[in-house]
Task: structure prediction
Amino acid sequence: MIQARTRSPEDTKNLAAAMAELAQPGDLLLLVGDLGAGKTTFTQGFAAALGISEPVTSPTFTLAREYHGRLLLHHLDVFRLDQISEVLDLGLPELLDSDGVILIEWGDAIRQALPNDYLEVALTFIEGQPGPLDERMVVLTPVGSGWQARADDLTAATEPWLEASSQ
Ligand code: ADP
Ligand code: MG
Result:
């Protein structure tokens, strides 16, 4: 588990961009966190670092959006129940077969249907302490061999954002 902290939306984008440098075809990232935590913001920074110049918007009313950069990026949001059932019924096997990188907002909702090989990115508001409201805790948990093998690279790439406790 890697514990990081960001201080602004731009900062979260920069963290995501640093992580995107490690992305490989077939990667799966689960973006976890409440509404407004920064899952879409994270995706925007990740996409920009893959060379995607199109604006990345929330896929709330479409099942998945696809963007072409250094790698193909699939951006999903499974917040609503109908999105969950749709992705489970239709899109998932095909997506998981693709060579793209898949980022799923609220991905923990469909964890059981996903392969046991992903990076969980959990964004949380930092409450109950003085300081700017723009701070977020970002906890990275590599699950399975694919990301565990890159845990050291992940630590190195995210070094500027790491909490002292996880260094
Ligand atoms: P989600 O997709 O998790 O619902 P969004 O990325 O759409 O969240 O929204 C996050 C909101 O919080 C945006 O308005 C963004 O500007 C704001 N924000 C403030 N500080 C941060 C931060 N450190 N990281 C990400 N977003 C932040
Ligand atoms: Mg979102």
User: Anything to note?
Assistant: The first strand starts at residue 2 and ends at 6. Residues 57 and 77 are 11 Å apart (CA to CA). The first helix runs from residue 9 to 20.
